[in-house]
Structure of Putative diaminopimelate decarboxylase:
Amino acid sequence: MTTTPAVRAYARTLAPERLPAYLYDLGALREHAAAVRAALPERVELYYAAKANPETEILTALAPYVDGYEVASGGELAHVARAVPGRPLAFGGPGKTPEEIRAALASGVGRFHVESAHELAVLADLAARARVRARVLLRFNLAVPGELLDGSALAMGGRPAPFGIDPADADAVVRTLTEGSSPWLELFGIHAHLASGLDARRQLAVAASVTRWAAALTARHGVPLREVNVGGGMAVDYARPGERFDWAAYGRGLAALADEHPDTVLRIEPGRALTVYCGWYATDVLDVKRSRGEDFAVVRGGTHHLRTPATKGHDQPCAVLPADDWPHPWPRPATGGPGPVTLVGQLCTPKDLLARAVPLTAPLRAGDRVLFALAGAYAWNISHHDFLMHPRPGFHFLPGDPASAPADARATAVPATALSRRPAADRANI
Ligand SMILES: Cc1ncc(COP(=O)(O)O)c(C=O)c1O
């Protein structure tokens, strides 16, 4: 399924001047997040990696299902703290500046994911000066067995990388926390986000390997292992948009791992696999042409709004909504037959490719709508919006039925607050 009924119906109501637009189905998001939460054992904490999609409405809709949020910059920290006040935050990411660390200490961030020995020294000094206790998870770039990261779409560890601390330095770094020289820092545990795009089997094997390594490290130093954060990176299959990460198998595996480590809280922090399915980039066809034997359709907008297919090199899954109305006096261009057609945007670059050789069941015409699916994560927020100065898309949040949030939700949803980062001209909570 690449669309939901709510999204199809709403997309038909938007006049062409209001396209392109991001449509978010918050009902679908809540349903998905509830299913993910239900598949995980009670003892496993679920944080949402806000970098995947930090829209206020998204953060708010997720609030009943997550235990906290992972933020990776001072900007994300300030924004998420405003959007979902009072919720636990973990501050990760490389290259934290002293100013960001000071702000994090002042705002009472729950966990610091420390990326290097230098960052630990800066945090120790600033925490002491502020007289604020900081709970630390040391992030390590761990080696994991054999082929585990081979299927990864984006490996960030298990090989030379700027992320996390080298395991060879682990004992020295742990000693700086246990020998008494950093009294304002508390070693709470270990963090490792090694790759994105792993299936449940690989994720579980990585989680087990990280947790066992962390348990051995803390045991060597005679300190408790209170927490292990095994990161995010649950696979999303853009080629088969109906497929989902096997949360049930992952939850069962994490339950067994948690049983092996009864005194340790396990935590995960997915981004993409939580929000990707709730967003669509809706647009319409502006022009259709044939070039050297192939059909192309130029749609309003492009990869400056939806960079995901350009950055990942895939074809963004999409659905066509035929529009029978053609109000113009000039002829309506259309493909000669039912397909395939390559969908491109309005940018003057051959890289502005949204989907190649899309099979069609009917000719595609100017004015037809196209809904690009799996646009709820790493889409608008990673795009180069200002290239060529085309207008920005609208943002529409379809509410679903907020009352349908299950009774076992972990926290009360907080009301949506306005996000003033962009002109609110075409921003609607429907
Ligand atoms: C430290 C960390 N945690 C979590 C995530 C979320 O990864 P994903 O969106 O693939 O689940 C990322 C992504 O880069 C990350 O760097």
